Amino acid sequence: MAATIAVLSQKGGTGKTTAVRTLRDVLQRIGLDVLAVDLDPQGNLSDYLDVDPDISPTIGDVLAGRAQAAAAVHNGIIPANLGLAEAELMLSGKMGRELALKRALNDARDAYDVILVDCPPALGLLTVNALVAADYALLSAEAQYFALQGVEQALEVIELARESLNPDLKWLGVLLNIADMRTRHSREAFDSLREHYGEKLIDATIRASIAYAESAERAVSILDYRPDLAVDYLNVTDEVLRRLGMEEPRRRLEALVRNGLRAA
Ligand SMILES: Nc1ncnc2c1ncn2[C@@H]1O[C@H](COP(=O)(O)OP(=O)(O)OP(=O)(O)O)[C@@H](O)[C@H]1O
Ligand SMILES: [Mg+2]
After folding, report:
1. Ligand 1 pocket: which of 17, 84, 205, 210 to mutate (most atoms <8 Å of CB)?
2. What's the gap in Å between 126 CA and the centre of ligand 2?
3. Are 177 and 143 in contact (CB under 8 A)?
4. Any idea which ligand is nearest the CA of 180?
5. What are the CA-CA distances from residue 108 to residues 28, 59, 100, 264 (Å)?
6. How far is residue 147's CA from residue 127's CA, in Å, rounded to a whole number?
7. What whole-number distance in Å separates Cα of residue 202 and Cα of residue 83?
8. DSSP strand E in 60-148: where?
């Protein structure tokens, strides 16, 4: 049974898609079967993973009931395009609209160790679907003055999903992303998150670097493009695996790092 993780934030541009793309890469290199679900009509994750923009079926077709999830998996990802916005509209008038993704993923769950869901930058129906389908919610927060406010709002939506539709949903943690810990405002963002959320804040932060945009543009993983920076994501993955109780994969991660990030 896969551990399903929804990666979300209230604001746009907090590094969610980059986190999904990079976590997926690390988890695959340690031999886990990972399914990525692009739940954003922008389709950024699908672009990053070089999915043909005209491919079908997509997650929009799945949510609209036109395709099975398994048929929409292309190279380990269920891609999205603007058709997802239409599917969301269609879904919004239906009974059980919050349950569509959960139902769709039910058959797929057995085939994977981890399912990563990349949410759109809004706390609307699509993100609620992700939270209802997920076992865990991972919040991404950009290291800015308003980080705390964004996390607070996302937490309210997590709480709503838990109270009404998914009592088993667990909060995996907050990831401080695109951080420059040499600056005071990044450090203040970290400190205020620590003060409010304690151990829920992941100790390891993701440094800000133009290398992320460059590596995305070149369709090269940050692990290969800038292994020195990728250490941040290795540390975050280790902490995520620890919180998931996946000790064996953690040992494989340690070996991966020892072997210079080359998959076995
Ligand atoms: N650690 C980082 N340092 C600097 N830039 C980054 C970092 N991580 C991601 N970026 C860049 O920031 C931009 C936004 O990142 P990304 O698309 O991952 O965010 P997002 O939260 O998914 O955005 P959206 O809310 O629009 O879906 C991209 O250009 C990406 O390359
Ligand atoms: Mg995104």
Report:
1. 17
2. 13
3. yes
4. 1
5. 17, 13, 14, 26
6. 19
7. 35
8. 77-78, 114-118, 136-142
| Bond before 57 cis per omega within 30 degrees | yes
Residues in the chain: 264
Nearest atom in ligand 1 to the alpha carbon of residue 232 is: 1
Can you tell me which residue has the tokens 């543009």? 217
**Backbone φ and ψ of 115, nearest 5°:** -120, 125
Residue pLDDT, tens place only, 29-68: 999 999 999 999 999 999 999 999 999 999 999 999 999 9
Taking alpha carbons only, the member of 200, 235, 210, 164 closest to residue 22 is: 235
Q: How far, CA to CA in Å, does 193 sit from each of 143, 189, 238?
A: 10, 6, 20
Inter-CA distances, 218 with 23, 49, 67, 210, 214, Å: 18, 11, 31, 13, 6
- Within the chain, strands assigned E span 3-8, 34-38, 77-78, 114-118, 136-142, 170-177
Please report where in the chains the tokens 């998914």 appear, as a residue. 166
The number of C-alpha atoms within 13 Å of 217 and in the hemisphere containing its C-beta is 5
pLDDT beneath 70: ranges in the chain: 263-264
Tokens in use for 70?
A: 């398994």
Adjacent-strand bridge partners of 136: 5, 170
CA-proximal residue: ligand 1, atom 11 (nearest) = 213
Going along the chain from its start, the domains and CATH numbers come out as 3-258 (3.40.50.300)
Give the distance (Å) from ligand 1 centre to CA of residue 48: 11
Contact 72, 58 (CB under 8 A): yes
- Give pLDDT, residue 264: 57
Q: State whether the beta carbon of 186 lies less than 6 angstroms from ligand 1.
A: no
Residue 241 is encoded by which pair of tokens? 């695996």
